[in-house]
């Protein structure tokens, strides 16, 4: 009978060790995620670079006119659907055409599998980091990336 009691206490110890290891792994994963967030937030207060888009040509209509300045913030969506922050109502613009977002200390432009594509400096782009002065063309609309200076 003593042998069975020892077996159960041994299993109890193993269970406790496994539980401690699992908790340790969860805490390490959480710290890893928080570390990435802290690294991202160290650049310009952590929100974004404060860049803007200048509308150079608004051939697709909408409520914006040439010369308008549109802040990007942490992200901006572009497309024909009313849910987008930058609405381009032309039929040659996809419902959800593209998005610009802040990631790892830089702005990225991502084409959302649009029919007619998104062009940066005349080259079709699926996903690319942006620089001040880059020219973005979506259908007949031309936007220029501006930094906060």
From TrEMBL:
Q: Where are the transmembrane segments?
A: 12-31
**Keywords, comma-separated and alphabetical:** Membrane, Transmembrane, Transmembrane helix
Which part of the chain is the FHA domain? 76-125
- Highest taxon of the source? Bacteria
Q: Does the keyword Nuclease apply?
A: no
Any keyword Transferase?
A: no
Protein name per its UniProtKB record: FHA domain-containing protein
